[in-house]
Amino acid sequence: MQRQMTENIRHPAVAGLFYPDDARQLRPMLAGFFSASPATPRQALALLCPHAGYVYSGALAAAVLAQAEIPERVILLGPTHHGLSAAAAASLATWRTPLGDTPTDGDFLARLLAKTPLIVHDEAGHRREHCLETQLPFLQYLREDLRIAPLLVSAIPFDECQEIAVALAETIRQSSGQTLIVASSDMSHYLARKEAARLDTMALERVLSLDPKGLYKICLEKNISMCGFVAVTIAMLAILANSRVAARLIGYTDSGAASGDMERVVAYAGVVFRNG
Question: Which residues pair with 76 in a beta bridge?
């Protein structure tokens, strides 16, 4: 931990667990994922992208990311699985993966932090979290000169989602160049495949109809274990504040496709949001 504080490097937490910790293995794996999902990338506002181990969700993550032109600035927005002391936590460190180091966009994050007290600078909150880290090697593979704005969010009320979304939308609008939001989320957790699909259909209907309040409400009311529903809610609110939006489902799958276990799956979805 002291090394991370001194170097201002966010070291990988799940390399060797969720994905290979050797670039000589990781790069060919990513190449295989992208070659299996050829697409013509176009400008996108946001993506909903899964964050499980690559054996389970890597192919779908690549299929989603292949749809988008990756700009120099990407906001990584996801849920905390380990808890935060604030509504949202930003990282200002340089992020390291087996593919190399990616800097954060310090100017963008400074402006964002100035807009709301709900977002704080908290490197410790990011140290063990996997949901943003697992997105980064895909993005590094697609664009080497990437800068990121990593942001974790807690299980916060809808009005706080709105406040953070306003801050994000204003910061994006006031910044030069394009900005892509990658909202990191898996869908239902540890249910039989049929039940997971039934619940996830309700959540995805709200996503595809561009109804962030409806998504937030139905995940709570139906106890849908979509871990990043708050992050996706915020991402949708932020892009809807600046643009007319259209959403497209790229794919839906679950861990049973890789493991063969259909009685206790984790499900994954991929969605692209573009100007409508």
Answer: 150, 182
